[in-house]
Amino acid sequence: MVCADIIKIIVAVILPPLGVFLEVGCSGAFFLNIILTILGYIPGIIHALYIILTR
Fold this sequence. Notes:
Its main location: membrane. This protein is mainly α.
């Protein structure tokens, strides 16, 4: 894990879609994360952390 990943994780906890956007750009995962964050903040965080930590 590098410094950039740690920054992405911190951003993902504060604003999950931004963390996903920094990792994958404007893709399906980004739009899915927006929907999950709107439906519930915790699912958005979990999805963002999953995307960041598995790539």
